[in-house]
Amino acid sequence: MLDITRRQAKLVELMARNEKYMPAKYYANRLNISQRTIFNDLKGLEEVFNRLEIEIHRKPNQGIKLHGEPAAVQRMIYQLEGTLETPNYSSLERQIVIFRRLFMEGQTVTYQSLSLDLYISTTSIIKDINRIRKFMDDEVRLVSDIKGTRIHGEEITIQKTVKRFAYYLIEQKVHNFTLASYAEILEPLFTKNILDTVYKTMDELVSVLDLNISEQYLKSFFISLLILTERAYRGYHLTTMPDVKFDGAVLTNYPLAVQISHRISSSLSFNFNELEHQHISNQLFAHRIEAKLSNKYIKNILSEDISQIIDQVSKAINIDLTTDDKLYNALIYHMFPMIYRLKSNINIYNPLLGEIKSNYGVLFRILWYVLEDFEKKYEIKLTDDDVAFITIHFRVAIERKEQMSKVLIVCQTGLVTSDLIMNRIKSLLPASVDLRLVAKSQLNNEDLSEVDFIISSVQLEDITQPIVYVSPLVSDEELIGIYSTYLKHSSTQRKREESKLNSETISNYFNDRYIFLQENVTTKEECLDTLIDVLEKDGVVKKDFKTSVFEREKLGNTMVKNWVAVPHALSSMANETRIAIMTTKKPIKWNDDYCVSLIILLAVAEKDVVNIRKLLGKLYEIIYTLEKIYGSKLIMSFEQPEELITLFQDKSTIS
């Protein structure tokens, strides 16, 4: 008998039965150990191999294989018999092994190989597989051909099957009350380091959660997160998701979801995709899991700063968020680790950055200005990704505070026509507008009391709400009418009507001296130098304004549309508030991916930060509307500064 461990004996047996080169990961998965342990065991077996005249051959990108005379290999297997007692697997243990290979590792298995590995007849293997089928719904199938048997289905449904099987394992145990007991029960199904990482992440999460969260919810979330991690780590990523609207309350958990995924992926050295970030966020919401900081020490450190930020943003957007405890707690929980992360030069990518800047661009840039003092105090530099995460928290708080605009689209029953109308209108109105499509025959069943206005392709009678009639294809002129009605009648617009800047106030920020039209510049640097030099010369900005602008450009993309950039500096760098504008004869490269032809440089003095929302809102409103109707052609055709100033002053331009 060979003097080796049972694990080493099993490794040798597996290698002896494989005539092909196999990667170390294959053996690690079969034995549920790490690849490092595989190599350590092989090194420890060198003396045994030498004595039996057997070698380990290695081939790059192929793996490892036992090499020796067949008689020598057979002699070694014979000597292993004393070490390798035939295991007596229970039915449940066999099902775990089979399920793990099919659903966790994505293997193609054969009844014969399973029979050899599990020391049982193929008849028993068939019974075990039929038992596993009971956890599968119609959308997940076992496909068999000459290569073997494997699973087939969408990843999201495969993970649901795994969760059913996981609960089946848990139900077999009498004592399954704690999260730790769940982890112990599920250990045979999952990779050890993945299980340990997810459990540790959950342990950290629990320390900052609201104490009223049900333990059953936490256990269910743990299982879902564990399954998602195991499958994603092995390269099986989500490609589809249930049609869940990704905003509002669900969006509240998105920064926490990214933080959880970053904690796991950085430990395991792989990346979740964007759908998986959203899936974690949805799971947090579905399990009623919310972060609530209970550490009074941390609260005392940040309390004054967070309250000040909320107060300043409230004044800038003219919506009082100072009594929103959910916003306060969410910001403290998010921003405390953010400080230390940034001081450690660790940045987290925000997959929703582009969407946030596009849909909530005004709020995004207000936060850039408001967070200046926070940056200075803690000596950090916020990236676009960080500001976007904070923007999410404020956006959700705003939605809690104000009524969402609701618009009804009425069509005949033709689905094709309805889709055409819906798609055109979706691209026009902000993402925050709640659009609902109904057939004319169902209109009488609708509660119209909270509908701001109706868009209809059919004639309607006895309706008191404003109606915009459109053709099935929705012409550009009809789009203008829809947007005009939105500005006039939407809930959000009505609430903010009193906050609009009047023409006289806007005039204070514009001066034809700072407007350059159809300039023949070729680089971003040349453009910014031209704009900033004249502001410096007139004493509008301080000496370090230019440095601040270029530092801001390094931190993130200041584009708001594919043809418009809005660079800016710290408010402390401006003596007065001014808007400098340049259009270029030819688009100039602004970043690695896009070129711009309209540059709006903002110099905002500290005393005017409170008005920045109204100023940015007016600028963005015109830019977005003109692009939808005219593209960039109208502004790019201007030859006199007065034309541009009049455009930004004249409310009738877009209403």
UniProtKB/TrEMBL annotation:
Specify the domain of life of the species encoding this protein. Answer: Bacteria
Q: Which residues form a coiled coil?
A: none
> What protein name applies here?
BglG family transcription antiterminator
- In this chain the PTS EIIB type-2 domain maps to 405-494
Recorded hits in SUPFAM superfamilies, A to Z, give: Phoshotransferase/anion transport protein, PTS system IIB component-like, PTS-regulatory domain, PRD
UniProt KW keywords: Repeat, Transcription, Transcription regulation, Transferase
Pinpoint the PTS EIIA type-2 domain residues: 508-651
* Annotated Gene3D superfamilies: 3.40.50.2300, Mannitol-specific EII, Chain A, PRD domain, Winged helix-like DNA-binding domain superfamily/Winged helix DNA-binding domain
Q: Which Pfam families does the entry mention? A: HTH_11, PRD, PTS_EIIA_2
Q: Which residues form the PRD domain?
A: 297-404
Q: Which PANTHER family match?
A: CRYPTIC BETA-GLUCOSIDE BGL OPERON ANTITERMINATOR (PTHR30185), TRANSCRIPTIONAL REGULATOR MTLR (PTHR30185:SF18)
